Amino acid sequence: MAKKYKGYLIDLDGTMYRGKESIQAAVEFVKKLEQKQLPYLFVTNNSSKRKEQVAETLRNFGVPATADHVYTTSMATASYIAEQKAGASVYVIGEEGIKSAVVEMGLTLQDENPDYVVVGIDRGINYEKLAKACLAVRAGATFISTNGDIALPTERGFLPGNGALTSVITVSTETRPIFIGKPEPIIMEQALEKLGTSKEDTLMIGDNFATDIMAGVNAGIDTLLVHTGVTTKEHLELVENLPTYTVDSLEEWDI
Amino acid sequence: MAKKYKGYLIDLDGTMYRGKESIQAAVEFVKKLEQKQLPYLFVTNNSSKRKEQVAETLRNFGVPATADHVYTTSMATASYIAEQKAGASVYVIGEEGIKSAVVEMGLTLQDENPDYVVVGIDRGINYEKLAKACLAVRAGATFISTNGDIALPTERGFLPGNGALTSVITVSTETRPIFIGKPEPIIMEQALEKLGTSKEDTLMIGDNFATDIMAGVNAGIDTLLVHTGVTTKEHLELVENLPTYTVDSLEEWDI
User: Fold this and answer.
1) Which numeric CATH code is attached to A86-179?
2) Which residues from chain B sit within 8 angstroms of residue A156, using beta carbons?
């Protein structure tokens, strides 16, 4: 008999959809949350999209979602910086999502001598961007990476993820970044604050043990692993921190 | 009383010149080697230039040098691959030096499903190049990096070196590359073969403890550290494998 939770943090890729295909049981599950007026927030390591874009993708899959239901690692990154230094200057490597999140938080985009260097996935990466980031970190800027994901699943196979791009600066400057996204607790603490429920009353749902479940473990939140994405049952036999619950499909989960 | 050596392996940047400025004592030293008909070979981790270009730079500084006096990590990389698999297909990230060395060695440049992936410094790096390299390494290509230098000294400061660019693929594919350049013994063994003197009769000269001196140590060759570049006397107090000899200037070295 599972506990009744009052709020849900939910992963996207592998949990709500796989690439361009929705996961129907997950869509129905979120519809039930909405009907029962249980608060939910989608928590994603994808830094490239704005929250409005993420919500639109979800609605196209039939998921009841507005921008207020979305919490991206870009939002968490901008929020983290603003808490430390309101109006800070930031040199950003990344796409639309991280740049707009930084600007919306009242931070300033700045190429030279910034207070912070932020790295998010950037498929327009080039040597000059990496050079600027290295110079800034060597000059004392605080080095932040939206997430440490090493690979991006695509139709072509696994392409370099943000954790891999970030490593250029880590290796060159011999400086470790602060990672914001799952499995780090930073994004989880911020998402919880937005969701408004307590740790005890919140469940983190995701398909990826290394990011989603470990994010819950690191933040002290109960977790539900759903086998619709990355992590297999065989894989779970090898890990130390088991999820609180495991299901094959969200159909099995009563709220 | 130092031993008399019959052949010399000599570093370039920090030993023969600093940026655009020659180191005069080093130029005079190489002139003496030439007069005494002692064989010498410049051994460099710079993969971006062809040997003819490197020789021309040296001649502009007044150093007696032909392309036959130059051994680049690109040449060592191409030679290493050809020894393993003549005519192998290679996907190359890098500039002119590595691409021409690969082609001159009879290897084939190939973007998809190559036998080898080679990464050299590439100031035209982009996401698609990194993506192709990751896909090839995941598909089983042997992963080689011309050198692990983490930073490039420039007038702007330290920019990302090839070891930093290489790390994108290392991190994303969880596969370590074979490094060819100094301090690895691979480039040294190949340079020795080209120089034609025995290990016992050869001296490695350089300014950088971590690359030049450790290359000699790893290859079992005596070393001379010259304090005209990277490594200071204070730094030497912290290391385990001391150079065989140390001088402030090559003026002090009798041949």
Assistant:
1) 3.40.50.1000
2) 131, 135
